[in-house]
Amino acid sequence: MFSSRALTSAARIAAPRTPIAARLTATRAYAQAAPPTGAQNKPPVALFGIDGTYASALYTAAAKTNALDSAAKSIDTLASVFKKDANLTTVLGAPMLSVSDKQQIVAELQKHLGQDKDGIVKNLLETLAANNRLGALEGVVEKFGQLMSAYRGEVELTVTSAAPLDNRTLSRLESAISKSQYVSQGQKLKVVPKVNPDIRGGLIVEIGDRTIDLSVSAKLAKMNKLLKDTL
């Protein structure tokens, strides 16, 4: 069913033993162990969790068939779909989706894949649906983006704000960070803006393993702790 045994093997590890998954794991495709992967196909960074497992398997499958660029374009398109449809995450995570529902969802998502070489991203969607993991798709999309950034030598700068930032502000942040110690010579800076109303205001800036929390929510938390300790 699937063109990549690496993707299938990872799905077996992450999947719950649901009736659908149990029937699928009985097939020969799922029973076979994935062959050793060459260093050139290994994900550039280690990721964890269910979404990290699937993202890493997708990377390996795409690398083995020289389809990384094609897969990246398809995943980028799916990322834009999530941004445009605020309800998509809720729909994908619904616990009572029938087999027919999943098939329709996958078919709809596949319309956005463009030139998906060897159907690798298509296979990912079908695997997630079969294993009741469609709710992990948004995380898989994000984690695969992290793998591609590392592959391209990019440093990801995540900027979280309570409301969308304008391009001028993002450009100023990018310019300032690109000249800092956190970006080595030859590395590219990739700005990833995120919106989280819960921070109330200010910014949370993340680059590599460094987090600078300048949010209003963080300041309020510190103030409340100070008052509590004083009283």
Automatic annotation (TrEMBL):
It comes from the Eukaryota. GO terms for cellular component: membrane. Pfam families: OSCP. It is found in: Membrane. Keywords: ATP synthesis, Hydrogen ion transport, Ion transport, Membrane, Transport. The keyword Transport applies. Its main location: membrane. SUPFAM superfamilies: N-terminal domain of the delta subunit of the F1F0-ATP synthase. The keyword Cytoplasm does not apply. GO terms for molecular function: proton-transporting ATP synthase activity, rotational mechanism. Belongs to the ATPase delta chain family. PANTHER family: ATP SYNTHASE DELTA CHAIN. This is ATP synthase subunit 5, mitochondrial. It comes from Bimuria novae-zelandiae CBS 107.79.
